[in-house]
Amino acid sequence: MCRVMIGCPVRNRAWILPHYLQHLIALAYPPEQMEYCFVINDCTDETELILQEFAHRFPVRLLYDNSSRPGGWQRGFYQFSRLA
């Protein structure tokens, strides 16, 4: 089987993250072929702590995007500025 990475952006998801992580590790795919990547975006809750604890047990990359851009018309600016 091929090695896969599951990626997910997260922001203030401590309320649902444990449930989500349990479902990820329950996937019918060899655990040694899986890696996880989370982009943590300006979290103000326990999201980062939950993911750090998860990273002690599984191969996880934690990336941070704490640029604190304003919302409104600039929402999505990061995605559009990265298009080729």
Descriptive notes:
The protein is of the alpha/beta class and 84 residues long. The chain has a single domain, classed as Spore Coat Polysaccharide Biosynthesis Protein SpsA, Chain A (Alpha-Beta Complex). Helix content is 27%, strand content 23%. The protein is built from 3 helices and 3 strands. It has helices at residues 17-25, 47-55, 77-81, and strands at residues 4-10, 34-40, 60-64. It has a 3-stranded parallel sheet with strand order 1-2-3, with helices on one face. α2 links the parallel β2 and β3 (60-64). The longest helix has 9 residues, at 17-25. It is globular and about 40 Å long.
Low-pLDDT sequence parts: none
Radius of gyration: 15 Å
Bin the strand percentage.
15-25%
> Which CATH architecture would you pick?
Alpha-Beta Complex
- Briefly note the CATH topology name: Spore Coat Polysaccharide Biosynthesis Protein SpsA, Chain A
Q: How many domains, as an integer? A: 1
Topology:
Layout: E1 4-10, H1 17-25, E2 34-40, H2 47-55, E3 60-64, H3 77-81
Parallel strand pairs: 1-2, 2-3
Write a brief structural summary:
With 84 residues, this protein is of the alpha/beta class. The chain has helices at residues 17-25, 47-55, 77-81; strands at residues 4-10, 34-40, 60-64.
